[in-house]
Amino acid sequence: MFVGKIIGTVVATRKDPKLEGRKLLIVRPLDEHMKPQNDYLVAVDTVSAGYHEQVLVVKGSSARMAFGMKDCPVDSAIIGIVDNFVIEDTQGNSR
Q: What is d(CA 9, CA 23) in angstroms, rounded to the nearest whole number?
């Protein structure tokens, strides 16, 4: 699981029938400092996330375990919207 930021959408008029009605979003992973990485992926939205929101993403078999994804041909799924986060350093200081 990782945190990412939604940066766009994918429109696919022809796709696997099990993906009909599903929103496909482009997610840019964030590193441990919440800085964007130089990578992108397409994820199925299971939580009605929106543009520029920070989200929780799972990949692989975990994506197929997300709500409504059983037996769907997905490799990544958005399973949560991040409201807030706290990162503590080794001395217990938050940032």
A: 8
Dihedrals phi, psi of 68, to nearest 5 degrees? 80, 5
| 92 inside domain | no
Q: State pTM to two decimals.
A: 0.87
Nearest to 32 by CA among 76, 87, 79: 87
pLDDT of 71 over the 90 cut: no
* CATH value at residue 43: 2.40.50.220
For 34-63, how does the pLDDT look when each residue is reduced to its tens digit (9 = 90+)?
899 999 999 999 999 999 999 999 998 888
Domain membership of residue 20 as a residue range = 2-81
